[in-house]
Amino acid sequence: MVAVERSRSGCAGRNNPTTNTRGSSVFSARTPADIRPPRPESITVARVVGLFLDYAKAHYTNSREYDEHRYAASPLVRLFGETPVVEFGPKRLRQVRDEMVKSGLCRNVVNRRITRIRTQIKWAVADELVPGSVLEALRAVREIPPNTTAVRESKPREPAHFEDVEPLLPFMPEPAEAIVRLCAQTGARPGELRIMRPMDLDTTDPDCWNYKPGSDAGPHGKHKCAWRHRVGSASHRHPATVDPRQRTRRLPVQPAA
Question: Per residue in 134-161, is it b (16+ CB within 10 Å) or e — as a string?
Answer without folding.
Answer: bbebbeebeebeeeeeebeeeeeeeeee
